[in-house]
Amino acid sequence: MKENSYTELMKSGAMNRGKKNYVQDLYIEMLLSEILLKAEKEKLFVQINQALDERDEEAFMKLSSQYRELCKRFGT
Questions:
Q1: CA distance 34 to 73
Q2: Which of 15-24, 30-39, 47-56 has the lowest mean pLDDT?
């Protein structure tokens, strides 16, 4: 069995940590994007419902357009 030098072991460990950090950073970024998307959708839902309650057609059309654009941008 071949033994690795201390330097080789350190390089290998650093490379593996880099991969783990990349995946972890990617996961965190995806999680934050999902949270922001849900918050923005909820805000638009509240505003759309308010426009419907007030029978404000102009606001409803504007807000529903923003909602459709948000869904298109995030592919939902």
A1: 13
A2: 15-24
Comparing C-alpha atoms, which of 59, 35, 39 is closest to residue 47? 59
CA distance linking residue 17 with residue 59, whole number of Å? 50
CB 67 within 8 A of CB 44: yes
Tokens standing for residue 30:
């995806």
Cα distance between residue 26 and residue 12, in whole Å = 21
Separation between Cα atoms, residue 52 and residue 41, nearest integer Å:
16
pTM exceeds 0.85: no
